[in-house]
Amino acid sequence: MVWEKWAMRGVCGVLAAAGFVCAAPQTGNAEPSIPPAVRDLQRVITPDLPATYGADTAVVILGYGLTPEGTLRTELVRRLRAGLVQAMFAPWSPVIVTGGNPRAGLSEADAMADWLVSAGLDPARILREPHAESTVANARNTAVLMAEHELADAVLVTSSDHIDRARAAFLDAGVTIAGELTPDRTPWPALPLRIDQFGPGLPPA
């Protein structure tokens, strides 16, 4: 489409000003090669925004193993950033962090909750499930927690190579899935992000 060609030219112009070079179109029927930097910039400029949900929908962020020192691995930070973006677009939704497997006395859920609070999320929105040691346990324990808080459904947040297994486990546990989000589909994946700098606020008490 014409607008796509002009959009690509605009993206390439920005990159050229920054010292990057766009690949030249290929001859024949082959698609032009798009450098990763261009794809990342396109995602920042025209992201797929997460959906909005109400107070009876939980944003469920699945854990990922901590380091032996109890710190967050890069992939877990990516999941948390995706979950934080979803929380911004669903300001009434509670956020469930699920994961046990403690390291240095800290569970995945507790480490995840600490990260979210440091990023500006209200601690009152966070529900912790710190016992699960597998995806199946994530789902079963979260289902119990959701029932206790009378939550109707969930948005699953995990890695793209884990979402199919997570979806199956949560469906088997009886959880209704309202949506899914993975880090590769999240807007602004590498920009500084705090919920008190961007996104809607919490409802009045």
UniProtKB/TrEMBL annotation:
Domain DUF218, which positions?
58-177
The signal peptide here is 1-23
> Which key words are in the record?
Signal
Q: Does the keyword section mention Signal?
A: yes
**What is the protein's given name?**
YdcF family protein
Species per Swiss-Prot/TrEMBL record: Nocardia rhizosphaerae
